[in-house]
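lol so apparently i was supposed to do this last week
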Amino acid sequence: AEEVGGGDKEVVRNYFNNSGFQRWKKIYGETDDVNKVQLDIRLGHSKTVENVMQMLTDDGSLKGVTVCDAGCGTGCLAIPLAKEGALVSASDISAAMVAEAEKQAKEQLAASNGDIAPVMPKFEVKDLESLDGKYDTVVCLDVLIHYPQNKADGMIAHLASLAEKRLILSFAPKTFYYDLLKRIGELFPGPSKATRAYLHAEADVERALNKVGWKIRKRGLITTQFYFARLVEAVPA
Ligand code: SAM
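anyway here it is w/ S-adenosylmethionine bound
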């Protein structure tokens, strides 16, 4: 899946509409038909979502705050955001993912009986590069892993241009240990590993943010046995 005329994106779209959709729907879901590795990734990812919700709610109420969830997947973040009263625009390059997120939101938000009346997120099939508009907060979780740094730079710049106050990103950090794990993984590719995983050095992500006038305000690291994510919150410098 090397880049040939933007080939990465087509491969990723195709993957997340087919085998990747089946695989990740299970990981992000609640059913018990997952193996040990998938269960570990589910746990790690849910910690990332919790961390993001904490970061955002620590900053004040989300009621009426506009949030763009770029690459929303099955809605793991969009739904809890809506429960907090945020006005969520959730989009994904995969139509299958967006349909699943919408289904989940309808089920979970109808049953929601908290103090705050949730607003149904606006779901859209769109790659993040073609998103427009302005949002108080833009969040993009575990999406950069599908793109090499030279592409990620442009994606980060575009996401920052949509955000007025905050941009939250998570990515797989390029550390020696994880680099090693990944190389070992590449020697034994499983049948479901249809896409390449790209790791990003925190310094490269920070440079991409600085270049467009943003600075990192908070950092987090989420690790389980098989899941690694660096979480950064950036604000205008
Ligand atoms: N952000 C979600 C979460 O954390 O629950 C989903 C993460 S999943 C590993 C990656 C998602 O990014 C997939 O749903 C995929 O379709 C989406 N994606 C990949 N490339 C994208 C792009 N260029 N624009 C928008 N979405 C993209």
